[in-house]
Amino acid sequence: MRVRIFDTTLRDGEQTPGVALSPEKKLAIAKRLDELGVDAIEAGFPVISEGEQQGIKLITKAGLKAEICGLARTNKKDIDAAIDCGLKYIHTFIATSDIHLQYKLKMTREQALEKAIEAVEYGKSHGLQVEFSAEDATRTDRDFLKHVFGQVAKAGADRIDIPDTVGYSTPQYIAEITKDAITATNLPVSVHCHNDFGLAVANAISGIQAGAACAHVTINGIGERAGNASLEELVMALQCLQFSNQKWETGINTKLLYDTSKFVSNLVGIRVQPNKAIVGENAFGHESGIHTHGILNNPLTYEPISPELVGRTRWLQVGKHAGIHGVSAMLEEYGVKPNEDQLKQILDKVKAMGDQGKQVTEVELVSIANEILSEHPIKRIVQLAGFSVSTGIGTMPYAFVKLNIDGTDYSGTDFGVGPVDAAINAIQKTTGEIAKVRVKEYKLDSISGGADALCEVTIKVEDAFGNIASAKSIGEDIVTTSVQAVIEGINRIMFKNTLKQKKIGS
């Protein structure tokens, strides 16, 4: 069975506290969603602002393959705003639960039903595809909900949506009311699940099992409060999990999931939690010795799916939980081949550092191995000799950096949109043809409160050959900490390449 993927990142996702997208950013995300293969994009809520309308107009004129939808309350003003944006498809809604009717809308059930019917009829009279949504459906009286769905179907609705507006449903109940909606309308039914109790994806799957043809989702599960059903989790669950004799497919190009996740995360400014399924940084990372041993023998031992399926690669981490096989595999990647006794010594040092609460980086691991193998220490290839930045109101931020690269001094200058950007640009310009490394991702987090808060900068760099390395630095000054993180990232890539060439221990 083919499941329709209705993405509401640009509407419900943008309702995440602190998220506001310009028209240009909305268009950029819409293009990525279209490339990903979603069936429908809810581009926004046209009536709320001029900027919202501009963004929706850009999307409707972009020639995307996906259907473009706009949200509208059950009134003519909202629907007219959608029409003015060039939309041919609306998602119109009104609350049907008694708590919403009494305290928000100040309406009777009959009045809400009348508004719903009027909106559907008005939309259809203007040639629109109309999807009707009964807000707070899962807390609505079940018989009344069936009645509403039946009446809007008679009024001409094309699709029915069941919103679990506050994530109140269980998988069992969402299945029951999905069957009710199908029976009452004989129309395609969607499920729109929120994650307040961590059940959004499970509820969406249950609705699909009960006959729903479509799921409303967002990239990374962003949305109000605890968010929405996560697109990447739902798609991969439908594709990979076993459901008795049921099988589903979507039009999603799963190899683009990780890149799309990162793209949206960067644009909306919400970092994906490391342990998030499918797209979290740790989703395909392994440290435990038992796990690493299993992975090296057969990835299926501790990976339910291949990371390549979602555009990822697996990685191994060394620490106090590491084992002989994991450490050996990581060292082999660098051309380092200790014997059994040397390997045990290396592992003991790694565990000792882990017991002290220290994270062992790849560079440190090879340095430990280098020491035990009695090789000459390999110095940091790129060292920061000095830097300065100049910024202010009415002037373009400017940076000067002085680097020592493999024993030779280099210096350079560059401009940027801010002091951090200027400093990073100057580093990349100075290393230029020598390192051939560019900053691919940059993230800044505050890890303590107050004006003198510590900041944490995490960067990802890439060289001309596609090799990628990550680095992290913590400090009080954002610019200095950013510069240190970039230098560390450049060192890791160059260090790795150098070691591979030298084949230490071979």
Overall average residue pLDDT:
88
Radius of gyration computed on alpha carbons:
27 Å
CATH top level label of the largest domain: Alpha Beta
Number of domains: 3
Largest β sheet strand count, sense and barrel closure:
8 strands, parallel, barrel
Low-confidence region ranges: 502-506
Task: Explain the overall architecture.
The protein is 41% helix and 21% strand. With 506 residues, it is an alpha/beta fold. The protein folds into three domains: 265 residues, Aldolase class I (TIM Barrel); 88 residues, Recoverin, domain 1; 121 residues, Double Stranded RNA Binding Domain (2-Layer Sandwich). It has an eight-stranded parallel β-barrel, surrounded by eight helices. A three-stranded antiparallel sheet has the order 11-12-13. A three-stranded antiparallel sheet has the order 14-15-16, covered by helices on one side. Helix 3 links the parallel strand 3 and strand 4. Helix 8 crosses helix 9, helix 13 packs across helix 14 and helix 15 runs parallel beside helix 16. It starts with a strand and ends with a helix. The C terminus is likely disordered.
